[in-house]
Hints:
Layout: H1 2-5, H2 12-36, H3 42-69, H4 75-96, H5 100-116
Amino acid sequence: LWFTRLGWMPHGGLALANTAATTLEVGVLLWIMNRRLEGLDGRRVLKGVLNAVLAVGAMSGALVWWLGFSQTYSVWWVVLGGIALGGLVYAILMIVQGVEEVSALFRNVARRVRQKL
């Protein structure tokens, strides 16, 4: 109701509530992890967050470009192309930034493929 009065889309309240709940959940989980693990490596966590923010920013820019470029395509091509482009841009940036978890994922996949051969 408040969003409509402000001239905003009414489902924005749902998005705002979801964002607030998720933010609160992350804060509580970090607090619990910090206590159980007797401390977190704050620099490492911050570096991971910054890597993800950079990759998400580039992915968002690529998707904005894709939406402008693909205006004449069918909805299916826009959606499928957007998913592929967004995932590709995000993955490439995470690899280029040398994110440890991505490297570990590739090592584990390669190890399992070698085991199957």
